[in-house]
Write a structure and sequence with these properties.
The complex is a heterodimer of chains A (159) and B (126).
Chain A lengths: L1 H15 L29 H29 L9 H8 L2 H29 L3 H28 L6
Helix pairs in contact in A: 2-4, 4-5
Chain B lengths: L9 H29 L5 H11 L2 H29 L7 H32 L2
Classes of the chains: A mainly alpha (159), B mainly alpha (126).
Keywords (chain A): Heme, Iron, Membrane, Metal-binding, Transmembrane, Transmembrane helix
Protein name (chain A): Succinate dehydrogenase hydrophobic membrane anchor subunit
Pfam family, one (chain A): Sdh_cyt
């Protein structure tokens, strides 16, 4: 009888005092706590600035890209009108040159940072991650420089 | 829900999945698009010959798909910003997603003829 009552009482006791001297609560470090063991590479706020950049560039890109789509694909006959003459007409104006340059840089950096996140999430092997990101950065630098060069050196009388 | 997964399903997870998928697709198109535009530095003919591909029915339809992806990514991106910066953002994330989908459907309906008119005119005349 006496053993039965003690057995029944124990689980209730354990629930009331989940943590006591014999069962200390596990110490959980805040997720981003920096300790002496934190590698130097992760002591900057790079990821926070990346997160902020995605939101700020995103707002600007909504205007730049939707305006671009409206002009290229919706207004004035849609895709029919696009050709060398149409590009020459638009890039005759510094306004559209700056528009396209800003769109190129922001969209490429926004997309590159997005794909960096995707690679970090799904590529589990260190070497796979390294080479995929190396390929991404190389392609991004190449494309941004090529596009910038094209906008700055465009010649309507090329022939 | 299967054990050992962080995926929660419903509006929150699926909008996140759609945001990723559309983002990656748009980024890959951007590479192609900068390369095709770079042809203006080669010759007007090289550029016009390549742009002709954009005027074929299949690629024209893909442009409508591109518009669909960009519109979703843009509108849902604004929703993500609202979730992050608006104090009631997380509370209303579902309502905001359905608002996004409503605006998306209206804009897609409005873009149907303007974007596809080149193909519609070639296939069905005038």
């Amino acid at each position: 009888m006496s053993t039965e009552t003690t057995q029944a009482a124990e689980p209730e006791d354990a629930q009331v005092t989940l943590y006591d001297v014999d069962h200390p609560a596990p110490v959980i470090e805040p997720p981003r706590a920096r300790t002496g063991k934190t590698p130097k590479a992760s002591r900057t706020n790079f990821e926070m600035y990346g997160w902020l950049f995605m939101r700020l560039s995103g707002i600007v890109l909504v205007v730049l890209v939707l305006g671009h789509l409206l002009i290229q694909l919706v207004l004035d006959g849609g895709v029919s009108k696009i050709g060398f003459a149409f590009v020459a007409g638009r890039w005759a104006s510094p306004f559209w040159q700056v528009w396209d340059l800003a769109m190129l840089w922001l969209a490429m950096l926004h997309g590159a940072n997005g794909l960096r996140t995707v690679i970090n999430d799904y590529a589990e092997r260190d070497t796979t991650r390294f080479w995929l990101k190396w390929l991404l950065y190389a392609a991004t630098v190449f494309t941004v420089l090529l596009g910038t060069l094209v906008i700055f050196t465009f010649d309507p009388n090329i022939r | 829900m299967p054990a050992g997964t962080l995926y929660r399903g419903r509006e929150g997870m699926w909008s996140w999945v759609a945001h990723r998928v559309t983002g990656v697709l748009i980024f890959f198109f951007l590479f192609v698009h900068v390369l095709d535009t770079a042809l203006v530095r080669v010759s007007p003919e090289a550029y016009d010959d390549t742009v002709a591909i954009y005027k074929t029915p299949l690629v024209n339809l893909m442009e409508y798909g591109l518009v669909a992806a960009i519109l979703f990514h843009a509108l849902n991106g604004l929703r993500v910003i609202a979730v992050d910066f608006w104090s009631k953002g997380a509370k209303y994330q579902k309502q905001m997603l359905w608002t996004v989908m409503g605006i998306w459907i209206v804009l897609m309906a409005g873009a149907f003829y303007p974007v596809l008119q080149h193909t519609l005119r070639t296939l069905f005349g005038s």
